[in-house]
Each structure stands twice: as C-alpha cells, then as structure tokens.
Amino acid sequence: MSEKKTIRLIITRQDRPDSAPYEEEFEIPYRPNMNVISALMEIRRNPVNAKGQKTTPVVWEMNCLEEVCGACSMVINGKPRQACTALIDKLEQPIRLEPMRTFPVVRDLQVDRSRMFDSLKKVKAWIPIDGTYDLGPGPRMPERKRQWAYELSKCMTCGVCLEACPNVNSKSNFIGPAPLSQVRLFNAHPTGAMHKAERMKAIMGDGGLANCGNSQNCVQACPKGIPLTTSIAALNREATIQMFRNFFGSDEV
Ligand code: SF4
Ligand code: FES
C-alpha cells in the first residue's frame, strides 16, 4: 500500500501576548495546489499535532487572500511574506511558520501592526478633503506622474519591510520604510502637497529619516516592488531643502 503524502509544519506558537513562545509540529494530509493559509485551515479543522495530541487551533489573520490586504503576513521558512501567496509545493519542508517579531504578538501568528498605522497618522498619510460641500473635480495629474504614484500607492501596510529592516525593533522608534514612502506619495499629490511641510517636519525628527541605516533590506523584501530606498533618498534631498527653508524662515518647500 502506498504511503499517503503529508505536509510537515513547525509553528511557533504563543498563547498570550506576555507568555513564552514554543514550537508545535503538525503533519497534515497533502492536497494539490495548497498554500500556507489552506494548510492552517486544515489544522484549524482538525487541531491535532504531529504527536497525535489534541491541541488548540493555530491563530492567524487573513482577509483578501490575494496579496492585497497584508493581514496574513508572517515569517515563512525565515522570510517575511504573505501566507496567502506562499504555495506549499514551492516551500521546503518542514515548513516553519513564525510571527513577525517586529510587532507585538497577539497570539500564535497574529501580530499587532498598530505601530505602522500610528506612524501613518503621525506623517498625515492622507489627502485632506473637506466633505461638507462638493469640491468638484480635483486637480488633474499628468498621466506619467499618476502611473508613478500608482506604484507607490500599492503599499498594503503588510509590515514585511519593517520586519526586514534591522533598524526597526522594540528598542527603536524608527517609523520604517513604508510610512516614509507614503510621505513621498502624498507630498507628490497636488492636494496632498498642502501638508508637505508638516509631513517633512514629522519625518525630520526623532524616529524619522535619520534612523535609516541604509541596509537596503526593505526594497528587496517588499512584495509589491515599491522603490523604498529611492523614496528615502528622495525624501533626504527634500529634507535638506526643507532645512534651508526653515533656516530662512519660510514654511514652504
Ligand atoms: S512598502 Fe511593501 S513591504 Fe512595506 S508595508 Fe508596504 S507593501 Fe509591505
Ligand atoms: S490575506 Fe490579504 S494579503 Fe494575504
């Protein structure tokens, strides 16, 4: 009788935000075309570990299932990436799943990415609009610039670039590459430019541009191919101009 094909997973688990992490191994039946999410769903359906002991279902987050929301980000075989696009057939076994350590662990593979969302608030990563009356059509952007901006707008706040960056950790308040790149995006928008000086001020202080160590890990890790290091270099140039403006007493860049 032929042996049934299985998938081996070693998952780093943590029961509570303040409890110690531990590893648990699982062996689940193989099906063609599985991804890490479907493997985790199989464990949820039948939470029994590789020793045959009943255990608690593994906790993780997911939403879009098409690499758009960033919620399912975790460290898979040592690499931060999205679980929904990690195909089992392309992964070496045993497959190791760990939470992204840059963020506080909520439970198992679920992390709290508030740090990144708070940074987006700090840098005003939005276009201010007054919804009390009809503003009419907004200013038009030249097509080439719109296409360029679209590339930067693909950021899904997944946190992978922060996880890959050696300068983002619990001891540093560096906001990290993704929020910096969003500053470049919103500064370039004709309406967003109104808040350019405020955004620059936010990233010229503690935890901003100066905390980047230029390791270049972020740009290699980003699943959306966002030119993060180019954005940071462009912002450094803008920061120099802003410093001169500040020195000569003008708020405008
Ligand atoms: S810049 Fe890329 S890696 Fe960083 S949060 Fe956005 S999509 Fe994720
Ligand atoms: S579930 Fe949205 S990126 Fe994976």
Give a description of the structure.
One of its GO terms (biological process) is respiratory electron transport chain. By secondary structure, this protein is of the alpha+beta class. The protein folds into 2 domains: 6-111, Roll (Ubiquitin-like (UB roll)); 114-247, Alpha-helical ferredoxin (Fumarate Reductase Iron-sulfur Protein, Chain B, domain 2, Orthogonal Bundle). 32% of the residues lie in helices and 13% in strands. The strands form 2 sheets. The chain has a 5-stranded mixed sheet with strand order 2-1-5-3-4. Strand 1 and strand 2 (22-29) form a beta hairpin. Helix 5 (177-188) packs antiparallel against helix 6 (196-204) and helix 5 (177-188) packs across helix 8. The protein binds iron/sulfur cluster (SF4) and FE2/S2 (inorganic) cluster. Residues 70, 155-161, 177-178, 181, 221-222, 224, 226, 228 line the site of iron/sulfur cluster.
SSE sequence, one letter per element: EEHEEEEEHHHHHHH
The spatial strand order of the largest sheet comes to 2-1-5-3-4
Class based on secondary structure composition and strand pairing = alpha+beta
N- to C-terminal separation? 74 Å
Instruction: Report the CATH superfamily of the largest domain.
Output: Alpha-helical ferredoxin
- The average pLDDT score comes to 94
What is the CATH C-level name of the largest domain? Mainly Alpha
The name of the CATH topology of the largest domain is: Fumarate Reductase Iron-sulfur Protein, Chain B, domain 2
Helix content: 25-40%
Tell me the major beta sheet.
5 strands, mixed
* CATH architecture descriptor name of the largest domain: Orthogonal Bundle
